[in-house]
Every structure is written in C-alpha cells, then in structure tokens.
Specification:
The chain crosses the membrane at residues 52-69, 76-97, 109-131, 138-161, 173-195, 207-224, 236-259, 279-300. Keywords: Membrane, Transmembrane, Transmembrane helix. InterPro entries: Na+/solute_symporter_sf. This is Na+-dependent transporter. The protein has 337 residues and is mostly helical. It has a single domain (23-323), classed as Na+/H+ antiporter like fold. It is 83% helix and 0% strand. The chain has 18 helices and no strands. It has helices at residues 3-20, 24-36, 38-44, 48-61, 65-72, 75-99, 102-105, 107-118, 125-131, 136-161, 170-195, 197-202, 204-223, 226-232, 234-258, 264-275, 279-285, 292-334. Helix 4 runs antiparallel to helix 13 (204-223), helix 6 runs antiparallel to helix 8 (107-118) and helix 8 (107-118) packs parallel to helix 18 (292-334). It starts with a helix and ends with a helix. The model is unreliable at 327-331 (pLDDT under 50).
C-alpha cells in the first residue's frame, strides 16, 4: 500500500481504536451527544434500517462459535432463558397493558411497550456484559436462540395484542424481521470467511469503536426530536423517561431474581440481556411507521440502555470478585493438608 494511503487509513483507525478503548464511558456519552444535537436526528433518521443492519452484522460477525457450541450442549438453561425473554416477557406486558386499559387510553404507548417486549435482546448485550465482567458467553448463546425465533414469536404476539395498532400485518412483521436477520447473518458470514475469526479478534478495539459510531448514528436518528418534545410537553416527556427506566430496571431485577439459583453474577448477566431490547430491529421491520408517542418512548429507552452498563459495572465487578474469592476458598478447603 502506498505511504499516502497508509497514512490516510492510519488516522481513522487510531481514532476508532481509541474510541473502542473507552468502553462503557463512550456508550453512555452517545445518548447525551445524540440528544444535544437535534439536527443530526433529521439528517440520520432515513438511515435507521441501515444502522441496525450494520449493528446486527457486527454482532453476528463476532460470535464465538466454539463457546456457542459448548453452551448448546447444555441446552436446559439456554432454553429457559430464551422462553422467558421471548414468551414470558411479552405475555406479562400484554396482559398488564390490557388489564389496565392501555390499549384504549394510550394506544401509542401500548404499541411501544408491546414492541419493546416482543423484541429480541440487543445484539450489543454480549459485548456490554463482557465490558462489565459478566458471563458474556451465556448471554451470547441465549441472544442467538432468542433472535432466531423472534420473527415467529413477534408475529404471534402482534396478532394477539396489537390488532389494528400496527401499520403492517403480523405476518409481514415476522417476514421482515426474518429478512433483516438473514441479510445480517449472510453479510457477517461473508466477512468472517474473507478475513477470518483471528483477524476480527485482533482488531477488537477498532471494531468496538466502529460499533460505537453506528450506535451514535442510530441514537441520533431515534432521539432527534427529544429536545423539541421536552420543551413542548415537559411533564409527558419526563414521565415517559421515568417509565422507560422503570421498565428497564424491573426486567433486570425480575430476571436476576428468577435465575438467582445459577449464581448472582450469571443471573445479572441474563438480567442485563433481557432488559436491553432491540427496539431498532422493530423500527427497521416497521419502516419507522409508528405514532409520535411510540417514537418518543423508544427515544427515552435509550437513556437506561446506554447509562446502565456504566452505572452497573462496579456492582458487576464486585459480584465477579466475590464469586472468584468463593471459588478459591472452596478449592483451598478441598485441597489436601
């Protein structure tokens, strides 16, 4: 490669490497920068689907196949976690929404909550779990199985709970979800075949940095109207933000409690995964044809999604250190003399 070209590529690569090294700080900063620059939202909103495709592709590209196969040999835990996130969560949310009359009183919010509950976990969940020192492999395997069946479960629950609220039919929703996931998986497979898993692992930090750039594009597109909405209807906007935090931490706490028998650290990893729903996938599948309240709620969910890894990292590291200390103590008692 000529020196001029090498120099041209070296600077962006160094920038992406630095950005990728910032970890949860960069993820947390994305949401505030996106909200603070509203013009970017209008500019980038047409590219929501493309941003989601790239994020999915990066995640599929980095799947550790050896770890994946290892967990699939012990399917009981993965099957239980998958059933909880793809079936248990939307059933509970749907029943609560109908029991409280949300369908009639606030159809836009009902649609937002159901799409959130029907979505698969975020593809970035394993990376965030790893950054926090949690069991990223368990998160990854459950993410893969949940993502594989979400076109079917989402279509099913859309027909049960969203009659007349969606601009597309439940069958079309399922087909579009399948198409998006299949296209991302195909692109990721080609990239792995061309460059190899070792090269992908060697360039972990610049890929992390590129992932954060795409997250920023998505966050800007979805949060472009947040400041305007906050000025126009502050109480409503703040109420939706509080609801987004409440839903996030409720899913996190309930999941951690349900799976506490496998160990608090691993249960927290699953809780993180279940609470981080891939709303971008739903936006892409519906082509963004959603009511303003749904858009605003989706924007508010970005705050807990981006902030919680940064806030929860100290807790996760304490749990991990405690588990390691307990394991060493047990091994010490078991060793002779």
């Amino acid at each position: 490669m000529p020196p001029a070209l090498r120099t041209m590529f070296a600077l962006p690569l160094r920038g992406l490497t630095w950005l990728g090294g910032q970890g949860t700080r960069a993820v947390a900063s994305v949401v505030f920068i996106a909200a603070a620059v509203p013009p970017l939202g209008a500019l980038l909103r047409p590219y929501v689907t493309e941003a989601i495709l790239v994020l999915l592709c990066i995640s599929f590209m980095r799947v550790d196949l050896v770890a994946l196969y290892g967990h699939l040999r012990r399917p009981a835990l993965v099957a239980t976690a998958t059933a909880w996130t793809t079936i248990g969560v939307p059933v509970i949310v749907g029943l609560i929404a109908h029991a409280t009359g949300l369908t009639d009183r606030a159809p836009g919010l009902m649609l937002a909550l159901m799409l959130q509950s029907m979505a698969s976990p975020m593809m970035a969940s394993p990376a965030l779990a790893a950054l926090m020192g949690l069991d990223a492999t368990l998160v990854l395997v459950t993410l893969v199985t949940a993502t594989a069946i979400v076109p079917f479960t989402a279509s099913l629950f859309a027909s049960f709970f969203l009659d007349g609220l969606l601009s597309i039919s439940p069958l079309t929703l399922g087909l579009k979800l399948s198409g998006i996931l299949a296209a991302s998986l195909l692109a990721a497979t080609v990239i792995r075949w061309l460059f190899g898993a070792d090269a992908i692992q060697r360039h972990k930090q610049p890929i992390d940095g590129f992932n954060i750039v795409i997250l920023f594009i998505f966050a800007s597109a979805i949060m472009g109207d947040v400041v305007t909405d906050l000025m126009a209807q502050p109480v409503f906007t703040i109420s939706l933000a509080l609801l987004a935090f409440a839903v996030y931490f409720t899913l996190l706490a309930v999941t951690t409690l349900l799976f506490r028998r496998i160990g608090t650290e691993r249960a927290l990893a699953l809780g993180l995964m279940v609470s981080q729903r891939n709303l971008g996938l739903m936006l892409a599948a519906t082509s963004g044809a959603l009511p303003p309240t749904t858009w605003l709620y989706f924007a508010m969910t970005q705050f807990p999604i981006h902030l919680s890894p940064y806030l929860l990292t100290p807790i996760a590291r304490r749990l991990t250190a405690r588990a390691e200390t307990s394991t060493k103590a047990t091994a010490g008692r078991a060793s002779p003399g």
